Amino acid sequence: MKKTAKKIIDFKKNGKKITALTAYDYSSAKYFDRAGVDIILVGDSLAQVALGYGSTTEVTTEEMLVFTKAVSRGAENALVVADMPFMSYQISIEEAVKNAGRFIQAGAQAVKIEGASPYIIETITRITQSGIPVMGHLGFTPQYINTIGGHYVSGKNIQSTLELADMAQNLEKAGAFSVVLEMVPQESSNFITKKLTIPTIGIGGGKFCDGQILVSDDILGKYDNFCPKFARQYSSLKDIIFNVARAYCNDVEKGNFPSVAESFTLDNNEAQKLENYS
Ligand code: KIV
């Protein structure tokens, strides 16, 4: 059965840890869904891992919509959340609501928005009021990389932890159904998690969050330009892909592919006629 934003909140109430992964294509979404992943995020991390851009700020709404459609077709049970890309919600609240709607029409059941400034809180309020569930995102927020200036841990002392907790509570009041905590010390995440009735989903946020999310290319070992400290690599897909492509080239070059079984053949009569003709 399709998971809903409300069901994700219930998971926190019932003490069930929430599982989340990013996906960018139909097949991956299908297998993550079959494996029981609760939330599939069409993360704007696809900018780097699927499109080869340098940062998430380069991916557009039009590009994100294509990936959202593909993932939505593959996810039967998981809640599909689409990341709203840089500049799709910062220009005006009207434009933010309109763009959020486009992601829902593309097949997602919710959108994710980074930050918690007063403007973002107002934006999230309006989007949730229009019937679109919103996931918040605090701590390290990659879309703000040009103002933050680097990949820094947030909530490293009591003052900044209290500020984060305040922002998380404002997100909850604005109607967000969950909050991603990225690169936040586990003690600080624990403090914030206890202050909220909506779940926290950690990425580099430690074990006390209500759920965990990772970039699928990191756990699969597919993207090797950079692997964050908090990502656990369960496979080395890049080696598998490389070895498969090498074996294929080898077979073609040596004339070992295709075999007869992998080809279409004429029946004997037609083959003979063709032979005589030449
Ligand atoms: O874009 C992304 O992949 C994210 C992370 C929270 C997983 O936002």
Question: Could you give the order of the helices and strands?
Answer: HEHEHHEHEHEHHEHEEHHH
- Which architecture of the largest domain does the CATH hierarchy give at level 2? Alpha-Beta Barrel
What structural class is derived from the secondary structure elements?
Answer: alpha/beta
Strand order of the largest sheet: 1-2-3-4-5-6-7-8
The CATH class assignment of the largest domain is Alpha Beta
Query: What's the number of helices?
Result: 12
Shape: elongated
Low-confidence stretches: none
Bound molecules: 3-methyl-2-oxobutanoic acid
Number of domains: 2
Helix content: 40-55%
The separation of the N and C termini measures 61 Å
Which structural traits does this protein have?
278 residues, alpha/beta, TIM Barrel, 2 domains, eight-stranded parallel beta barrel, 12 helices, 8 strands, elongated, binds 3-methyl-2-oxobutanoic acid
